[in-house]
Design a protein that fits this description.
Elements: H1 45-59, H2 61-68, H3 85-98, H4 105-121, H5 128-147, H6 157-171, H7 191-224, E1 241-244, H8 246-250, H9 254-263, E2 267-270, H10 275-280, H11 288-298, H12 300-309
Antiparallel strand pairs: 1-2
Helix pairs in contact: 1-11, 2-3, 3-4, 3-5, 5-6, 5-7, 6-7, 7-9, 11-12
């Protein structure tokens, strides 16, 4: 491994890197000005096989935030003890975004400008949760800008992306990377330490998934803008892992989490290697985050076939 400035993160040598976008080329002149009230333009058949599923999920994220208080990379209980201001503002903007029309659009654009400028000029976060919330807010603003042609706020996407990448680099020092070869950690016997373990897991898993979705989203954005997809440049070559278990991710209490941890198999997807999951998992083990990455890795038909062969549908 190459030396890394991050406590838990190592850089994978180029020959060992895995890029889930391998083999894709960017579409030319793809129009990003897709108003929410109009159906999105379809990608070409080959590209849609890998990316249309993820694009559809990303377009639905503002609604998911407002109505379900979660995203595929942000656990519903992450902010149960308090939502940092950056995320509060982004949450409010998502709610406004859902009500946007031709009449109120100028007012909403002014509000978006103000909130984004506040975030760009805000002092650095002082806690890991505040840092993660800032990253989540940046992702939401970028998603709304990417998929709505009416949102062309004054702060450039480049400024948001620069802050996003800098924030993710800071987040690395807070993340623990599990390894599939490590034995499954045993939960404590009493509920009090289980609650602490679960709360830590909610933050860690949200952070692990957030790091992945940031680099995934940047690739999606470059792809849809017609920019060439270069070979993995090291950012997606970061040693990384996340837990693929819908049972763990969907648990909304420490008790439910403990039951899911004990009674259900969970999979660690390490460096984009889905081999163990594809061989041993059941469809009920795969949540929306896993579906997004599986479709990008395998293609829509292959992923549908995997679910069908196990008696389910994607």
């Amino acid at each position: 491994m190459i030396d890394s400035p991050f406590r838990y993160i190592n850089i994978i040598p180029p020959e060992d890197r895995v890029d889930i976008f391998e083999g894709l080329s960017s579409p030319q002149n793809f129009d990003l000005a897709m108003a929410r009230t109009n159906p999105p333009k379809q990608l070409s058949d080959v590209l849609a096989s890998r990316l249309q599923f993820a694009v559809d999920v990303l377009q639905d994220i503002p609604r998911m935030v407002v109505t379900e208080n979660k995203t595929p990379w942000c656990h519903r209980q992450l902010y149960k003890s308090g939502m940092p201001k950056d995320m509060q503002d982004a949450f409010a903007c998502c709610s406004l975004y859902m009500s946007k029309n031709d009449i109120n659009s100028p007012v909403l654009m002014s509000i978006f400008d103000s909130r984004i400028n506040d975030l760009l000029s805000a002092p650095p976060p002082t806690t890991p949760l505040e840092l993660l919330a800032r990253i989540h807010a940046l992702i939401l603003y970028l998603i709304m800008r990417l998929f709505d042609g009416g949102i062309r706020t004054q702060p450039s996407s480049e400024s948001l992306l620069a802050l996003l990448e800098a924030s993710v680099l800071s987040l690395f020092s807070c993340i623990h990377i599990p390894h599939p070869s490590q034995p499954c950690e045993l939960l404590p016997i009493s509920m009090e330490p289980i609650m602490g373990f679960w709360e830590s897991w909610v933050f860690q898993e949200s952070a692990r998934r957030t790091v992945l979705i940031v680099f995934y989203f940047v690739k999606i954005q470059h792809f849809l803008q017609g920019k060439p997809l270069s070979a993995c440049d090291g950012k997606l070559g970061l040693e990384h892992a996340w837990y693929q278990s819908a049972h763990l991710w969907n648990a909304q209490s420490a008790f439910d989490f403990a039951v899911a941890w004990t009674e259900n198999q969970h999979f660690i997807v390490y460096n984009a290697d889905f081999t163990g999951l594809l061989q041993e998992a059941k469809p009920a083990d795969v949540d929306l985050f896993g579906k997004m990455l599986l479709v990008t890795k395998l293609g829509i038909d292959e992923t549908k076939a995997w679910f069908y062969s196990r008696g389910s549908v994607l």
